[in-house]
Amino acid sequence: MKFASAPAKAILLGEHAVVYGQPAIAVPVTQLRAKVTVEPGGEGVRLIARDLGHSHIVGEGSPPESLKPLVALVESTLDYLGGERPALTITVESAIPIARGLGSGAAVSVALVRGLAAHWERRLDPQEVSALVYEAERFHHGTPSGIDHTVIAYGRPIYFQRGQEPQFLRVGRPFLLAIADSGVESPTKAVVEEVRQARDREPRRYEALFKEIGALVQEAKKALEEGELDRLGHLMDRNHPLLRDLGVSSPSLDGLVRAAKKAGAIGAKLSGAGQGGCVIALVREENREEVASALRGEGAQMTIVTEVS
Ligand code: MEV
User: Is the pTM for the entire model greater than 0.90?
Assistant: First the structure.
């Protein structure tokens, strides 16, 4: 039996604008992981998704809608690994809440490719994993920038611009992020599509917002590399209202951001596609608990604090 896993991710700054060519920064969230086991035996290539409560034999009829991207990924990965279809049972489980901006779909996909590669005793480099997963991600996201599966496949903080190799960030000073789940599901694909329609209606306004966000990201890259956490927090604070202007915040996300700031967070913003999902807050060791508890007090269903280094 082979095991593989992949972390969740959080977008530090730059979501949505990254779909339109601006840079963004993303970090892995290592405590939350998707896991895959691959066992020889059973009947054909069977994919079991524990959290979705679905199981499907690859190549036999049409899979349930929610399994389609994963089944397609199993097929393309098996082809990539040589085309054999031995009897295998692939079980997918994830501790990453679904549709909350934490990259659950991308993490499951990365773990799946790694698990299949491990079964064939192959080590795929992150670039190969990333390329295989991109196709499955298009299913989840419509027009993804590629940032989610890239940060997850590499497992390192990245500065990402669509169509370019990711740049790995040297974090000047390790920092803590409190992540709060609003509990509201918000599929990325739908929000990305809404932003696209809004941009088509008001191209000038949206392009200006994307540019402004891109400029914040460039400053944030410097702040992060120089260990200037106050500066980084301030840039996150400035990113949030721009996301609100894009139409992807919500009263509950705004409430969580305010609660984090009031409890002493250095910076706070929504993270990921928005409208639901998560808020992230840059916190200090001495106030991490206070901020996390303020976020729960404001209605967050789950909070974790993760170190980025
Ligand atoms: C989702 O994590 C980030 C978005 O910018 C979409 C994408 O980049 O594909 C909202």
Answer: yes
